[in-house]
Amino acid sequence: MYDKTVPNPTVRNIEEALTLFCDQQCKAMIALGRGSVIDCAKVVGARFVIRVNLYLK
Questions:
Q1: What is the pLDDT of residues 10-48, one digit of tens each?
Q2: I need a surface site. Which of 7, 12, 16, 25 has the fewest CB within 10 A?
Q3: H/E segment holding residue 28
């Protein structure tokens, strides 16, 4: 569980959450909260998809 999101998520927030998601070999993501939490989760999800697509090429 990543619980360090700050208002207006920073690149550091995104990278920390993405690293945790990958290191824990997560299969799904659930964002509980509002605004910034949802924004952070959306960007982490997008970054993960980009990372997977680059890996598969």
A1: 999 999 999 999 999 999 999 999 999 999 999 999 999
A2: 25
A3: none
Closest alpha carbon to 21 in 29, 9, 11, 13: 29
Q: At what angle do helices 11-23 and 36-56 cross, to 10 degrees?
A: 60
C-alpha distances in Å from residue 8, one per residue of 14, 34, 35, 38: 11, 11, 8, 11
Triad 20, 12, 55: Cα angle to 5°: 55
Residues of 32-49 as b/e, b for ≥16 C-beta within 10 angstroms? Answer: eeeeebebbbebbbebbe
CB 16 within 8 Å of CB 5 = no
Handedness of CA 6, 8, 12, 16 (dihedral sign): positive
